[in-house]
């Protein structure tokens, strides 16, 4: 099991994460990322990792 | 007969599209070696920060690498840095490079584009374009030494540089050849709103004005002569007047180019006219359009890589771009040139076609933009989601 960490002070609400993994990320009404499910099972790790890596401002981390 | 384990995927161009092609191919099950060739000395890096954070007054920025070395290692990709490509032979499946001939079983062209320059200004001290990391360092050094700068082109790049220069207290003049900036990108209402941001920040914008000459000294540029007859002193001139697809190396190959844009003609699966060759990013021309957006480059790269590995995905994406000018967050989503343009609320300009919302420009409106982007994405028939492709493990087949 891995865990998503989002730094809202860095997030610019660009939404690349949501475009790639919308069951884990959503840009909220404040324009910043909301992590919908922080814990990522092994089966989803690859695609959540791709979404995390695609953040243009490096606001996301996948730990573990 | 080669097995899937020794088939070679060659990717030319080490930007976002090239890197995403590696990831797309691995996710679709490409088992053989992958090589990514770039003409710069740096690992694959991201361009948006070059006209944003990299120009700020803080310490010299590191290369904004796209992936950590651990991720690059997991992808099992060999990166050839500082290697230029000269030619392509689609019959023998070889690419001629400054490091010799490279063979391939599948090829992804992701060479991006080259910033347009003005004749007579090329190579002058104090004159810059901004496309590569090394360009950004040059612009940054120039800004640090300038009191007045001239920016040619009021598009997104020019406007971001204007913003960085104002943040350093530099006097900024922006020249725009057309009567209306951003003519091909957004409607007149949105363009007006965006240009107000410049006016509020003290940027002088001159439309219908071009450069007719420059005056130089041994320190480089001193002044710029304008088509209006005016001469303005400037310590630096930065050109943001567009970019041409980097396709010179494809001359004489079987890869067909779009006569108008010069881009590589691609179908919706990013396949080119030559067997075994795909294209992605700024160089790719899909449906007669080069998107030149970060989001499209990444998605095209992923789809091109997956299809090179035997998948049958189609490129579909809701156009999206973002920028920051003078501290204001600008986002552009969907189709923003439709004639039906309305400012819904201050700073949120919506475009409609046949009564339906098809796009918007937002100034400090990330929430409404995110909602519209979601609803537009729901209407767009999407390619297979990434996790299906990962699970699919498609075995590549030789054509």
From TrEMBL, chain A:
Transmembrane segments: none annotated. SUPFAM superfamilies: 4Fe-4S ferredoxins. GO terms for molecular function: 3 iron, 4 sulfur cluster binding; metal ion binding. It holds the Pfam family Fer4_15. Its cofactor is [3Fe-4S] cluster. It comes from the Bacteria. Keywords: 3Fe-4S, Electron transport, Iron, Iron-sulfur, Metal-binding, Transport. Coiled coil: none annotated. PANTHER family: FERREDOXIN (PTHR36923:SF3). This is Ferredoxin.
TrEMBL record, chain B:
InterPro entries: FAD-oxidoreductase/Apoptosis, FAD/NAD-bd_sf, FAD/NAD-binding_dom, FAD/NAD-linked_Rdtase_dimer_sf. One of its GO terms (molecular function) is oxidoreductase activity, acting on NAD(P)H. The keyword Flavoprotein applies. It comes from the Bacteria. Its cofactor is FAD. One of its GO terms (cellular component) is cytoplasm. It holds the Pfam family Pyr_redox_2. Keywords: FAD, Flavoprotein, Oxidoreductase. Transmembrane segments: none annotated. Residues 8-301 form the FAD/NAD(P)-binding domain. This is Pyridine nucleotide-disulfide oxidoreductase. The lineage of its organism: Bacteria, Bacillati, Actinomycetota, Actinomycetes, Propionibacteriales.
């Amino acid at each position: 099991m891995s865990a998503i960490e989002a730094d809202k002070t860095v997030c610019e609400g660009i939404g690349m994460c949501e475009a790639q993994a919308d069951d884990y990320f959503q840009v909220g009404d404040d324009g910043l990322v909301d992590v919908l499910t922080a814990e990522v099972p092994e089966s989803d790790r690859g695609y959540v990792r791709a979404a995390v890596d695609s953040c243009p401002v490096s606001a996301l981390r996948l730990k573990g | 007969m080669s097995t899937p384990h020794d088939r070679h995927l060659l990717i030319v161009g080490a930007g976002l599209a090239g890197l995403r092609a590696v990831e797309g191919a691995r996710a679709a099950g490409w088992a053989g070696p992958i090589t990514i060739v770039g003409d710069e000395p740096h690992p694959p890096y991201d361009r948006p920060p070059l006209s944003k954070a990299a120009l700020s007054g803080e310490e010299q920025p590191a290369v904004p690498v796209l992936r950590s070395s651990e991720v690059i290692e997991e992808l099992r990709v060999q990166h050839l840095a500082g290697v230029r490509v000269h030619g392509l032979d689609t019959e023998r499946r070889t690419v001629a490079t400054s490091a010799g001939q490279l063979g391939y079983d599948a090829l992804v062209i992701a060479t991006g584009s080259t910033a347009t320059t003005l004749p007579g200004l090329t190579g002058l001290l104090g004159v810059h374009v901004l496309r590569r990391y090394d360009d950004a360092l040059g612009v940054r050094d120039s800004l640090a030494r300038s009191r007045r700068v001239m920016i040619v082109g009021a598009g997104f790049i020019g406007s971001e540089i204007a913003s960085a220069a104002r943040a350093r207290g530099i006097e900024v003049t922006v020249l725009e050849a057309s009567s209306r900036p951003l003519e091909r990108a957004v409607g007149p209402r949105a363009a007006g709103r965006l240009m107000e941001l410049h006016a509020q920040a003290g940027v002088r914008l001159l439309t219908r004005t071009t450069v007719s000459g420059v005056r130089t000294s041994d320190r480089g540029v001193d002044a710029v002569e304008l088509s209006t007859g005016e001469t303005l002193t400037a310590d630096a001139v930065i050109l943001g007047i567009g970019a041409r697809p980097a396709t010179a190396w494809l001359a004489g190959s079987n890869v067909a180019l779009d006569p108008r844009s010069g881009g590589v003609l691609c179908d919706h699966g990013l396949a080119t006219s030559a067997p075994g060759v795909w294209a992605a990013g700024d160089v790719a021309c899909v449906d007669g359009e080069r998107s030149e957006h970060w989001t499209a480059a990444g998605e095209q790269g992923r789809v091109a890589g997956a299809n090179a590995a035997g998948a049958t995905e189609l490129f579909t994406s809701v156009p999206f771009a973002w920028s920051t000018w003078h501290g204001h967050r600008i986002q552009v989503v969907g189709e923003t040139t439709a004639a039906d343009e309305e400012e819904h609320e201050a700073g949120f300009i919506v475009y409609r076609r046949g009564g339906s919302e098809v796009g918007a420009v937002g100034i400090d409106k990330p929430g409404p933009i995110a909602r519209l982007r979601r609803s537009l994405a729901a209407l767009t028939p999407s390619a297979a989601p990434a996790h299906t492709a990962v699970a699919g493990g498609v075995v590549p087949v030789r054509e």
